[in-house]
Prior knowledge:
Blueprint: H1 2-9, H2 11-17, E1 22-27, E2 32-37, E3 44-48, H3 54-67, E4 80-85, E5 89-96, E6 99-100, E7 109-115, H4 150-160, E8 164-167, H5 174-183, E9 191-195, E10 207-211, H6 223-232, E11 237-242, H7 248-255, E12 262-266, H8 271-285, H9 291-301, E13 303-310, E14 313-319
Parallel strand pairs: 8-12, 8-13, 9-10, 9-11, 11-12
Antiparallel strand pairs: 1-2, 1-7, 2-3, 4-5, 5-7, 6-10, 13-14
Helix pairs in contact: 1-3, 6-7, 7-8, 8-9
Amino acid sequence: MPDVVLDSLIKPLxxxxxxxxxxxxxxxxxxxxxxxxxxxxVPWVAYSSEKLSKQYLVDLIHTVANVYxxxxxxxxxxxxxxxxxxxxxxxxxxxxxxxxxDDRDVTGGVAMxxxxxxxxxxxxxxxxxxxxxxxxxxxxxxxxxKPEDPYERVMEAINDGSPILISGATSTGKTTFLNHxxxxxxxxxxxxxxxxxREIKVPQKNRVHFVLSRTEQSNKFNYARLLxxxxxxxPDVIIGGEISTDNASVLWEMMxxxxxxxxxxxxxxxxxxxxxxxxxxxxxxxxxxxxxELMAEMKHKLRVVQLARDGALRAVTEVV
Length: 320
């Protein structure tokens, strides 16, 4: 009986995720679905659907949880459900206070991804530019040149997707600077933010905001579980909130998942101090790391933009 209920309940979504040309779908809030298409110039395409009410989406998550015997309790338990639906469709969803789209979701939102079960036709090694006797392509090579101009160093990092750590004391404008960076990112990009309070303003419409409050968390959702969810939500850009001892190791792991465009902030008085502070916060929960090796890896892969303030004057003082 539960399988029959699920088959009936999921039909409004099947037209979006079952076609062979669909790689996956993403739902960030009620009434709208984004389709990621195989090989499309603009990969994400949005459609409106009145059938996708918030109640419908939450009921669907409950039903999937029941059918596949997964725990689901957004308020006191686990707000996330993973399953593989018939046809090899990977299902990932979250509901409740840990997910938001905009101010309408102040009491809790809903987000969902369903992977298509098919693959684009005639896929072979040649589609990945792997040919006998031919050198491998270098896709988005980074760090080949370091421009002398600090402005060009920032723009190069934004354009090639290098991770950026924005550092500064309180009220130096770190979040404002980050918000401006987002205006320079492709408006068709899919943005995922990870914050302990909603501060980042994302102009892109294809977005999800995950919130893990340091003071009001009551369910079983934590940063380790958040890492699994973020990578399943297929972000083009990941925005981490301010680095703390609670989230530092998970944010560092996110930087190593292969996603471009990772941005986060930290309190520090210089670029060197920012690397040290980030490393020390990681070591607080992951003491097995070697501090010197960790900082060396950070300096290799992570660009720091240092901000400072003197009264009303705010300025970038280092770009390394």
